[in-house]
Amino acid sequence: MEQILQQYQSVASTKVMTWFHVGKINDFPENGGACIKYKAKQIAVYNFTRKSKWYACQNVCPHKMEMVLSRGMIGDLSGTPKVACPLHKKTFSLENGENLNGDDYKIATYPVKIENENVYIGFTD
Amino acid sequence: MKKVIVIGNGMVGYKFCEKLVNKANSTDFSIEVFGEEPRPAYDRVHLSEYFGDKSANELLLAPSKWYLENNIKLHTSSLISSIDPSKKEIKTYKNESFTYDYLVIVTGSSPFIPPIKGVEKKGVFVYRTLEDLDAMKSYASKLKSEGKIEAAVLGGGLLGLEAANAAKELGMNTHVIEFAPRLMPRQLDLPASNLLKQKVEAMNIQVHLEKATSEILGENGIESMAFNDNSSLKVDMLIISAGIRPRDELARNSGIKIGERGGIWVNNKMQTSEKDIYAIGEVALYNDGIYGLVAPGYDMANVAVEQITGGDLTMAPSIDMSTQLKLIGTEVASFGDPFIENDEVAVISFENKHKGIYKRINVTKDGKKLLGGILVGDASDYNTLFQLYINAMKLPENPEDLILGARGGEASSVGSVMDFPDSAQICSCESVSKGAICGMIQDETCCSVSDVVKNTKATTGCGGCKPMVVDLVNESLKALGKEVKETLCEHFSYNRQELYDLIKINKITTFNEALNLFGKGNGCETCKPALASLFASIYMETANRQITIQDSNDRFLANIQRNGTYSIVPRVPGGEITPEKLMVLGSVAKKYDLYTKITGGQRIDLFGAELHELPLIWKELIDAGFESGHAYGKSLRTVKSCVGSTWCRYGMHESVSFAIEIENRYRGLRSPHKLKGGVSGCIRECAEARGKDFGLIAVEGGWNLYVCGNGGATPKHAILLAEQLDDETCIKYLDRFLMFYIRTAAPLTRTAPWLEKLDGGIEYLKKVVIEDCLGIAEELEKEMQGLVNQYECEWKQAIEDPEMMKRFKHFVNSNDTDNNIEYVPLREQKMPKAWR
Ligand SMILES: Cc1cc2nc3c(=O)[nH]c(=O)nc-3n(C[C@H](O)[C@H](O)[C@H](O)COP(=O)(O)OP(=O)(O)OC[C@H]3O[C@@H](n4cnc5c(N)ncnc54)[C@H](O)[C@@H]3O)c2cc1C
């Protein structure tokens, strides 16, 4: 389990080495998410149309270690954009990955770049 | 700066730290904590929920970053092995030494292991830490794979019964073995424990009383237990819960005064015999007693903090040991002195064998004061009685009303929480008084229950005071003339019923539009599914149209399971299915390797379908004539039936035909919560119709219609709405009833709690549905007919539209599937590998 989690470390947009092309913007539902694969990683990508923003994070929920976050509902908590895990509704900030229910979990977040309707996620490897 | 060292990071040790850092002069102290366990302090009181859906992380009292933020140096996995009071120094098991100005010993207690021959055998457990539970869990699953399922708990006290329940939830066949002639001997009298025994046995936990264990037998691990009366019991796993022993070994070896029967002696300032050394929690021996509950431990923590920081608070001379049994599915409570019987005391008791209720209160002879009592089967009055007792409040004129309820008048005999004095302690775990709660509302520090919880921590301990806190907050708000409004969430300050009307009148059709017009922000996991349900109930919109506001299951039209795969339940109306269709289900399950099980609603559930397989499977099912069963939705599930008069020699009417008609009428109907129905062909009630949201039972001259029942955690029998109805009237009433519920219930409220909250209750519901007192009956029927006419199978819709199909791919950019899914064999099928 530690192994799975160690694969995912937040990437700051200034540290990106590879911008990986993951699809077109309309491959991702409005105000919702979908999952992409990069090497062995599963990354959840959200098209937050209401805020005209994109977010990406690990697909694995650190609570029970299932690959499901991309299927969760998104929204906000006092202005902080968040995703709710579909299994037990744990919520995480899409900005810094912190758990918003006061639990000791954190998820890794990744930068997203949109160019000509193409969606790219930033990685360091 | 003074250095405070805390030994033990359990519940009370944590509370000590929390109270100390909240002191105004806390910066005069630096805190260093040593705990033997590998994790920071966690909620031991709710330990059993670790077998439910709480993870170790969720049980933490505070995350590790809390200690950092408060400048507390926390050493986990650090056993302290000695104390030298003369040098003011402690040593860890690695022989590192640390000096202190103040030392607080909070080492708690350990389970008492009676000296029985064979207790050291494999398969014998205690129940105190997360590690104990992990060990039990893996041992039980190993046993089960070998077909061994017998578990026993030694000790029938509060904790033993909790452990027994846990063993049962692990899938074991469970026994409780108690030495005394009754269960919970420290809290209950004989009639109460006899009743409790019946209830425990009804849950399939066998109770053996007056059994002294002589030996634990077995080759490699425990295999059986032998008793003094020469009987024996086959046991594959044993949990010992025979009381606790204070962990005073450290203090004992350091020359600190220990009581004769153990425990670190302390005075009312929580000081031990040695200067600047304090002891609190379960290890402390105060007034000749050890107190195995959190509330007194928290009080001690408070006293120690006050003393160390220069205050003069002392511990009250008498300690309250009132408790409630948690988790076991029956209500049991005992408070004050439950047993007291003498010339000064009048005992009032009441027993209803039929309903399984026993209540006893002990009051002073003059009838003025409550001294203690016991409640079994119905502990709903516990909070009130406890308040009357702990605040020594004056009792009503006829104290028996306290347990019998006021007869004659409607008003409750006990009065409302608002009648309590300000000093009344509402939350005993966190010592929060009524005055403190009401005061925060009055001075506008708080304006909701969650504000109060944040500010006072009330309800965060055992949680028993929650209903009272809610009442206090609501009543105080009302008294200030503030409207107490249930609102959906931070994004909509309307309740569900108001939103229903707003959406309908303004013909709103999308979530975004509703949010822009009536809400703020960007929505969340509470308001999105609530509005999705409203769109469905108003326009019969399927879950395919606005997929990202659908709840987890609706979004993919299937039930998400613990490993992120899905289960599939096609509709089988009334539970009637042809052999051909059964074979289709069998061959589809085989082809996709799905775990197959019959549901409680007379259908077949196929588990373990991966996201990308859902449309493939549904294509085959739809081709064979199946349609969605909506098992994933807050919607009509099934209408269960018995075989009825077509075959049964007792049947009065055709229950299957009518169940099919009703199920097909309301299929796909989305509602505030799930809806279940039942139709029985005679009063033998084989369809269990009274355990459903609506149930029909055939009688001479037609159907009796019952409403608002459910099974589940708090079972409720449905209540008679109308008698001897013909088919047509029955459907008419059902239309009205269901539509009225859909319009007015709060989100995720089933029909039973809805009815409970409905002003006027069943009599009012009868007036609305039968007498049409609101003049809306016709409208309700029309609305329902509109929904019925618009029904469409959403799975058929989904597989026919490529755009809707997009969501059933695990990866957007690859055709790979999720390689994180693993299975283990289970009998002749499979199950997901357990959570790590
Ligand atoms: C299953 C269960 C259910 C319960 N239910 C309830 C309930 O409903 N209501 C209620 O009021 N109470 C309940 N209790 C009791 C409650 O949990 C205890 O009263 C409470 O935990 C006592 O707190 P404590 O800090 O004194 O001891 P603990 O929580 O046991 O903490 C003591 C800590 O000190 C550590 N320690 C011991 N020796 C050393 C050493 N030498 N060096 C370093 N660390 C050391 C231990 O490892 C432990 O972590 C329950 C207990 C259990 C096990």
TrEMBL record, chain A:
SUPFAM superfamilies: ISP domain (SSF50022). The keyword Iron applies. PROSITE patterns: RIESKE. Residues 20-121 form the Rieske domain. Pfam families: Rieske_2. Gene3D superfamilies: Rieske [2Fe-2S] iron-sulphur domain. The keyword Oxidoreductase applies. Keywords: 2Fe-2S, Heme, Iron, Iron-sulfur, Metal-binding, Nitrate assimilation, Oxidoreductase. It comes from the Bacteria. NCBIfam families: nirD_assim_sml. This is Nitrite reductase small subunit NirD. It comes from Galbibacter pacificus. The gene is nirD.
TrEMBL record, chain B:
Signal peptide: none annotated. Its cofactor is [4Fe-4S] cluster; siroheme; FAD; [2Fe-2S] cluster. Keywords: 2Fe-2S, 4Fe-4S, FAD, Flavoprotein, Heme, Iron, Iron-sulfur, Metal-binding, Nitrate assimilation, Oxidoreductase. Residues 426-475 form the BFD-like [2Fe-2S]-binding domain. Pathway: Nitrogen metabolism; nitrate reduction (assimilation). It comes from the Bacteria. Gene3D superfamilies: 3.30.390.30, BFD-like [2Fe-2S]-binding domain (1.10.10.1100), FAD/NAD(P)-binding domain (3.50.50.60), Sulfite Reductase Hemoprotein, domain 1 (3.30.413.10). Residues 322-385 form the NADH-rubredoxin oxidoreductase C-terminal domain. Residues 561-622 form the Nitrite/Sulfite reductase ferredoxin-like domain. Residues 2-306 form the FAD/NAD(P)-binding domain. InterPro entries: BFD-like_2Fe2S-bd_dom, BFD-like_2Fe2S-bd_dom_sf, FAD/NAD-bd_sf, FAD/NAD-binding_dom, FAD/NAD-linked_Rdtase_dimer_sf, NasD-like, NiRdtase/SiRdtase_haem-b_fer, Nit/Sulf_reduc_fer-like_dom_sf. CDD domains: NirB_Fer2_BFD-like_2. Residues 633-771 form the Nitrite/sulphite reductase 4Fe-4S domain. Pfam families: Fer2_BFD, NIR_SIR, NIR_SIR_ferr, Pyr_redox_2, Rubredoxin_C. Belongs to the nitrite and sulfite reductase 4Fe-4S domain family. This is Nitrite reductase large subunit NirB. It comes from Galbibacter pacificus.
